[in-house]
Amino acid sequence: MHDKNVARVRRAQQTRRRIAQVKAARLTVHRSNCHIYAQVIDPSGRKVLAAASTVEREVREAQPKGGSVGAAAEVGKRIAQKAKQLGIEAIAFDRSGYKYHGRVKALAEAARANGLKF
User: Fold this and answer.
1) Quick one: which of 33, 54, 28 has its CA closest to 108?
2) CA distance 68 to 62
3) Strand, helix or coil for residue 84
4) Residue in 70, 68, 67, 81 with CA at minimum distance from that of residue 112
5) Contact residues for 29 (Cβ-Cβ < 8 A; gap 6+)
C-alpha cells in the first residue's frame, strides 16, 4: 500500500530526472506544516548555491507564522534576491512533488516577480 509521501517522492524523482537532462540550476522547495524552505542547487545537483526559509530571523520578523502564504511569498522574494546576487537568472522549478497550489504557488510567483525566470 502506498501512502501520500511515497507518491510525492516518486513525482519528485520524475521531475528531477527531467531537470537533470536540461542541466539547469534548480529552485527546490520543501514544506512542512510550520515552515517552508527553498534552495537553489547547481546543475550537477551536488552543491546548494543559495537557501532561504521561514526559519531565518529576517523572515520571522516580517511574517511570524511560518506556515502561511505570506511567509512563503517572503521566502520566494528572498531566494530570488540571493540567486540574482550570484548571477543566476534562469532556473528550473522543482516543487518536490507538491501540488502547485497555496504556499508552493505563492513562493514561485514571488520568485518570478523578483526576477527569476522559470
Assistant:
1) 28
2) 12
3) helix
4) 81
5) 36, 37, 38, 93, 94, 95, 96, 98, 104, 107, 108
- Work out the pLDDT band at 2, boundaries 50, 70, 90: confident
The amino acid sitting at 47 is K
Separation CA 36–CA 67 (nearest Å) = 7
Please report the domains of the chain, with CATH numbers, ordered by start residue: 4-113 (3.30.420.100)
Q: What is the pLDDT of residues 90-110, one digit of tens each?
A: 999 999 999 999 999 999 999
From the list 36, 48, 41, 27, the residue with the least C-alpha distance to 116 is: 27
On the CB side of 102, CA atoms within 13 Å amount to 10
